[in-house]
Amino acid sequence: MASAQGIINAVKTALDASTTLTALDGGRHYEHTVPQRMVGTFPHLIYDLVSPEASKTFTGTDTLDGAELQVDVYSDQRAGPAAARAVGDAVRAVLDQQTFTATGWNKVEFHALDFGKLSREEDAYRIMLRFKVFAS
After folding, report:
1. Which residues, 6 or more positions from 101, have their beta carbon under 8 angstroms from its beta carbon?
2. What pLDDT does 52 receive?
3. Is 85 exposed, middle or buried (0-12, 13-18, 19+ CB in 10 A)?
4. pLDDT value of residue 56
5. Distance spanning both ends of the chain, measured CA to CA
6. Residue 80 and residue 44: Cα distance in Å, rounded?
7. For residues 112-124, b (16+ Cβ closer than 10 Å) or e, as one string?
8. What distance in Å separates the CA atoms of residue 111 and residue 117, rounded to the nearest whole number?
9. What letters, b where the CB count within 10 A reaches 16 and e where it falls short, cover 69-84?
């Protein structure tokens, strides 16, 4: 059975390959959480699937029904909200309506559900982006 890790790996590869995104955030792209040694280093982003694992259908093919990818972008408050928005825009350009290959899957597509809600946190601005995942 195909796993969600193949999709996460495809996301990492796509984010890391974007020179535009890396120029903005220094390549600080983390799965699940920021490493302790990097806490307080901005900007950075965290990505994760926030939905069910792959499952078999009656035809025997793997699907990922109802899957969503969430990407949280954080930037230093001193840089202002524009810095967070710039990184969020770059993430959207990398993922939205794009098709990727992923281990265990024929193809994986991402479609933006939310173009980035901005919030102010303790020492940072945060933009949350959500993408619908279509994997087969």
Report:
1. 10, 107, 108
2. 60
3. middle
4. 44
5. 11
6. 14
7. beeebeeeeeeeb
8. 16
9. bbbbbbbeeeeebebb
Q: At residue 81, what is the residue type? A: P
- How much is the pLDDT for 66? 66
* Interatomic CA distance for residues 72 and 133, integer angstroms: 16
DSSP single-letter state for residue 117:
E
pLDDT per position as a tens digit, 43-95: 999 999 987 655 444 445 555 656 899 999 999 999 999 999 999 999 999 99
Q: Report the Cα 19 to chain-centroid distance in Å.
A: 16
Q: Is the pTM of this model over 0.85?
A: yes
Q: For 7, which DSSP code?
A: H
Average pLDDT, the chain: 87
pLDDT at 75: 95
Sheet holding 29-31, edge to edge: 29-31, 44-49, 68-76, 124-135, 105-120, 98-102
